[in-house]
Specification:
heterodimer; A: alpha/beta; D-Maltodextrin-Binding Protein, domain 2; 2 domains; 10 strands; disordered N terminus; B: mainly alpha; MetI-like fold; 76% helix; 0% strand; flat
Chain lengths: 370, 393
C-alpha cells in the first residue's frame, strides 16, 4: 500500500512539475555521459563541488552517450526532452548541431573567462569545432601492448607500423570495428605521407590500398566496439596489442597494474564535450547554463585530470594539472598532449569524415564480411 | 519377470579396454588442446586409459578400492604437472575413468535396457544418455562459469593464474562489497525492488480477472480478446518498447515510475492469463453453482471457493510476471529515464562501458534468486497436481 501511494505521489509530482517549479532554476538535472572511469571523473570534478554549492539540486546521471544521437532524435520526435546536458564526441556534436537537436551558444557569454581575463573563445581556441559544442577534454586513440608477450630478443613495439608487422610481433591485435583511424593508420604504414592521407583516401584506389594493407593482418584482428573491450582483451592476454582511448590504457597500466605499456606513436587526437539539447524549458535551461559555466571553468577542467588522463580543453588549465587523486603520481606525463607523448600525432579530420563516413562505413563493413 | 539373469562379464580386451581408452582420449583431447597439441593429448589419453582399464580389471577386483586408486594416481600426476588445480582436475578425471571401467566391466551398463536388447540398442541407449548430459552441460556451463569469476580479485573477467592455482589471495569478495556499497547499484536495486512487485501486483490482478472472464463460455469474441491480451508476449519486445515510448511521451508517463510499472504490467499479464487459464481448465463449475445455491454472492464465491483452488496458477503466473519485470532491459531503456534505472539496465550499461566483475557478482545473486523463485513455482505446481489428484501424494 505504502509503495503504491508513494508512486501515485511521484506521478502527481511529475504532472505538477511545470507549475510547482515556476521559479528561475529547476532543482534537478539529468546529465548524460559515458559511464565508467570517465563519468566518475566528471562526478568528482564537476558534479560533487557543484552540489556542495547548491545542495538543493539533484543530479541524475544517464550512461547513454553511446546512443545519444538516436535518443535525442527520438526525444525530439516525441516532443519530450528529458536530458539537460549531454556529453558527446565532437563528430556527434557536429551532427546534432546540423540537425538542430543541439543548442547553439555564444562562448563568451555562456562560459567563464580564464583567471587572467582571457576570453573563453580565445582560451578554448580552435577546439570549439561547432557552434553547439562545449569542449571538455582532448583524448587520443592509441595503442597499448602486453609487455610480457614481446618476443625475446626483439625491441618492444614503438611505431604504429609495428602493428602491421606480424613477422617481428606475432600475435592478435584489437582494432575498432569502424574505418575511422584504421584506414589512416593503414595508409601511413603503406608509405603514404601524413599530409597526403586524406587526399589519397578520397580516391577509390586509396580506399582499396588501405583495405589491402588491413587485409595483411585481418586474420589476426579482434574487432572491438566498446571502449572497455581492449582493456579486457589485454588483461586476458587475448591480444598482444590493441587500440583504445588513452585514459582506458592509463587505468589498465597504473590503476589495475597489468603488464601493459603505451605506444603513443601516431596517436589520433579527438575531442569530447557537452552539448545542450535544443528546446529545453526556461527553468531547466537556466540551471544547465549555470552548471556549465561552473563545470567548464579553468580550475574544474584541471581538476578532472586528477581522476583520468585526458587533457583539459582550456589552454589556461594545462599548468594547473596536478597529481592523481588516489595514486599520487604526476598526471602531466600521462596526458596525450604532453610533448614527450605527442612527438608524432595524427589529426583526425572531422569535416572529411563527415562527408565520407557513410560511404566508407558501408565499404568497411562489406570488407569485414568478406 | 522373477528370473534373475546372471550378469555376464563382458570381454575385457575387446570391450572394456577400448571404451575406457575412448573416454580417456576424449579427456586427453581437451588437456592436449589446452597445452598446445590436441592430437598428442588424444593419443596419450587413449593409451593411458587402455593401460588403466586393463590394470584395474586384472589386479583390483574391488570396485571402491580400484576407483580410489585411479583417483589417487591421476590426482598425484595432476599435482605434479599443474599444481593445485591439476590435483582437482586429475582427481575428477581419475574418478570418472575408474568408475567408468567398473561400470562397463561389471555389466551394469545393461541395467537401463530390457534383457533382450541387441548390443546396438544398448550402445544407443547409453550414448543417448551421454548426449543428454552434454546438452545439459552446454546449457548450464555459461552460468556456472560466471560464479567463480565473480570472486575474482582483479577488475577483469579473467581467470587469473592465481585463481587457477586455487590461491586464496586471488579470490575476494570485493565485487560483492562494491555491489552493496556503491550508490549506483543500490539505487538500481531499490528501483527494481519497487517496480517489480508493483508491476506483479497489477498484472496478477488484471490477468486473473481476464482469465476468469475469458473462461466463461458466454463471453463473445473470446479468442480474439485472448489473442490481443497475449500479444505483448508475441510482438518483438523492441517494437512494444518503441510504441510505448512514443505513446507514454505524449501522455506524460515517459520517465516516471508509474509508466515503467504499467509497461511491465502489460508484459506480465500474458503469463498470468496463461497459467490461470490452465488451472481453470481443471476447475469444476458446479462448485460455484453450489456456493450460489447456498446463498453466497459472486464476490464471496470467488474469494472463498474459486480463488483457493486456482491459487497455484495465480502464484506461478505472478512469479513469471515478477521475473519478467525484474529481468527486463529493453522496455525500461525506452520508457524509463535515468531516475528509474533498474538492475538489468545498470548491468547493461556496465557491461558496455566498464567491464567490471561487479556485474558477475550481481548475476550470481540474481541466478540464486531465480533458482529460489523457480523452485517455489515447481513446488506449487506439484501441490496443485496433488490436490487435484493427478499424481500420487
Amino acid at each position: 500500500m505504502k509503495l503504491k501511494s508513494l508512486m501515485l505521489m511521484t506521478g502527481a509530482a511529475v504532472a505538477a512539475a511545470p507549475m510547482a517549479f515556476a521559479q528561475d532554476m529547476a532543482d534537478s538535472m539529468t546529465l548524460v555521459s559515458w559511464g565508467g572511469a570517465y563519468q566518475n571523473s566528471q562526478v568528482k570534478a564537476y558534479a560533487d563541488p557543484y552540489k556542495e554549492m547548491h545542495p538543493e539540486v539533484e543530479i541524475v546521471w544517464d550512461e547513454s552517450s553511446n546512443e545519444a544521437v538516436a535518443k535525442l532524435r527520438a526525444m525530439n520526435e516525441a516532443g519530450n526532452i528529458t536530458w539537460d546536458l549531454v556529453d558527446v564526441v565532437a563528430s556527434d556534436a557536429i551532427r546534432l548541431c546540423d540537425e538542430g537537436l543541439a543548442m547553439e551558444y555564444d562562448p563568451d557569454e555562456l562560459l567563464a573567462e580564464a583567471p587572467d581575463g582571457t576570453s573563453a573563445s580565445d582560451d578554448f581556441g580552435d577546439l570549439i569545432v561547432s557552434d553547439c559544442f562545449i569542449p571538455q577534454i582532448v583524448y587520443s586513440t592509441t595503442f597499448g601492448y602486453r609487455t610480457d608477450m614481446v618476443p625475446e630478443g626483439v625491441e618492444p613495439p614503438s611505431e604504429i607500423c609495428d602493428v602491421f608487422d606480424l613477422e617481428t610481433y606475432p600475435g592478435k591485435r584489437a582494432l575498432e570495428k569502424r574505418p575511422i583511424n584504421n584506414m589512416e593508420w593503414a595508409l601511413l604504414c603503406d608509405g603514404v605521407a601524413k599530409e597526403d592521407v586524406y587526399d589519397v583516401l578520397e580516391t577509390e584506389e586509396g580506399q582499396a590500398q588501405a583495405l589491402a594493407k588491413l587485409d595483411t593482418i585481418k586474420d589476426e584482428v579482434i574487432w572491438w566496439s566498446a571502449g572497455a573491450d581492449t582493456p579486457q582483451l589485454l588483461a586476458d592476454g587475448e591480444v598482444f596489442m590493441g587500440s583504445t582511448y588513452n585514459g582506458r590504457l592509463f587505468s589498465v597500466i597504473e590503476e589495475q597494474d597489468q603488464p601493459v605499456a603505451m605506444m603513443w606513436d601516431a596517436q589520433v587526437f579527438d575531442l569530447d564535450g557537452w552539448i545542450i539539447p535544443a528546446g529545453l524549458p526556461e527553468d531547466r535551461l537556466a540551471r544547465v547554463m549555470d552548471f556549465v559555466k561552473f563545470a567548464t571553468d579553468t580550475q574544474r577542467l584541471a581538476d578532472q585530470a586528477k581522476y583520468i588522463s585526458y587533457g583539459p580543453a582550456r589552454e589556461s588549465s594545462a599548468p594547473l594539472v596536478s597529481t592523481h587523486a588516489d595514486l599520487g603520481i604526476e598526471m602531466a606525463p600521462h596526458m596525450p598532449t604532453d610533448p614527450n607523448n605527442a612527438t608524432n600525432t595524427f589529426l583526425y579530420n572531422y569535416e572529411w569524415w563527415a562527408d565520407y563516413r557513410d560511404d566508407l562505413d558501408a565499404k568497411f563493413q562489406a570488407w569485414l564480411a568478406q | 519377470m522373477a528370473l534373475i539373469q546372471p550378469i555376464k562379464t563382458p570381454p575385457l580386451t575387446t570391450f572394456t579396454v577400448p571404451f575406457v581408452a575412448a573416454l580417456a582420449g576424449f579427456f586427453g583431447l581437451f588437456v592436449g588442446i589446452a597445452n598446445g597439441s590436441g592430437i598428442l593429448g588424444l593419443l596419450v589419453g587413449a593409451v593411458v586409459g587402455a593401460v588403466l582399464a586393463y590394470a584395474l580389471v586384472s589386479f583390483v577386483p574391488d570396485k571402491r578400492t580400484g576407483t580410489l586408486i585411479s583417483l589417487a594416481i591421476f590426482a598425484v600426476v595432476g599435482l605434479l604437472l599443474a599444481g593445485l588445480s591439476g590435483l582437482v582436475g586429475g582427481a575428477i578425471i581419475g574418478f570418472i575413468l575408474g568408475w567408468f571401467t567398473y561400470w562397463l566391466h561389471s555389466g551394469k551398463y545393461r541395467m537401463g535396457v530390457p534383457i533382450y536388447s541387441t548390443p546396438r540398442e544398448v550402445l544407443w541407449h547409453n550414448s543417448y544418455k551421454f548426449i543428454c548430459g552434454l546438452i545439459f552441460f552446454f546449457l548450464i556451463a555459461p552460468i556456472i562459469t560466471v560464479m567463480p569469476l565473480s570472486f575474482n580479485a582483479e577488475n577483469f573477467f579473467t581467470f587469473t593464474p592465481g585463481m587457477l592455482a586455487l590461491d586464496p589471495e586471488a579470490y575476494s569478495l570485493k565485487h560483492y562489497r562494491d555491489f552493496f556499497g556503491n550508490p549506483d547499484w543500490q539505487q538500481a536495486l531499490r528501483n527494481s525492488v519497487q517496480i517489480a512487485p508493483a508491476a506483479t501486483l497489477l498484472s496478477v490482478t488484471l490477468g486473473t480477472l481476464a482469465a476468469i472472464g475469458l473462461s466463461q463460455p458466454h463471453v463473445p469474441f473470446r479468442r480474439a480478446i485472448m489473442a490481443i491480451l497475449i500479444s505483448p508476449m508475441i510482438v518483438p519486445l523492441i517494437i512494444s518498447a518503441a510504441g510505448m515510448y512514443f505513446f507514454y511521451s505524449r501522455i506524460g508517463l515517459q520517465g516516471t515510475y508509474v509508466g515503467v510499472v504499467l509497461a511491465h504490467a502489460a508484459l506480465g499479464i500474458p503469463f498470468v492469463i496463461i497459467t490461470v487459464t490452465a488451472t481453470l481448465v481443471g476447475f469444476d463449475d458446479s462448485l460455484t453453482r453450489a456456493a450460489a445455491n447456498m446463498g453466497a454472492n459472486p464476490v464471496t464465491t470467488f474469494f472463498k471457493v474459486q480463488m483457493p483452488l486456482i491459487l497455484p496458477g495465480v502464484i506461478s503466473g505472478g512469479l513469471f510476471a515478477f521475473i519478467t519485470s525484474f529481468d527486463e532491459v529493453v522496455v525500461v531503456l525506452f520508457v524509463g529515464s535515468a531516475g528509474q534505472k533498474t538492475l538489468p539496465w545498470q548491468m547493461f550499461t556496465g557491461l558496455r562501458e566498464q567491464i567490471s566483475p561487479t556485474i558477475l557478482a550481481v548475476a550470481t545473486i540474481l541466478v540464486g534468486i531465480s533458482i529460489l523463485l523457480l523452485t517455489t513455482v515447481e513446488l506449487l505446481r506439484r501441490r496443485s497436481e496433488r490436490l487435484r489428484g493427478m499424481s500420487p501424494g
